[in-house]
Amino acid sequence: MHPEPAVYMECPLCNKILMYSDWSPTPFDSAWGFNWSDGKRDGNFNHIRSALGKCPQCKELFRLRDAREVSKPDDFPRAENIEMVREMIKTLYIKKPSIEDYQTSLAGIGAWRFGEHDLRFNLWWALNDFVRYEDKKPELFLMHEKVFKNNLESLLNLLKKDYFLRTEDLFIEAEIARELGDFDACLLRLDVIPKKYKKYFMEEEEAACNKIRQFCQQGIRLVQPLSSSL
Question: Which of the residues 6, 57, 217, 218 could staple to 16 if both were Cys, CB 3.0 to 4.6 A apart?
Answer without folding.
Answer: 57
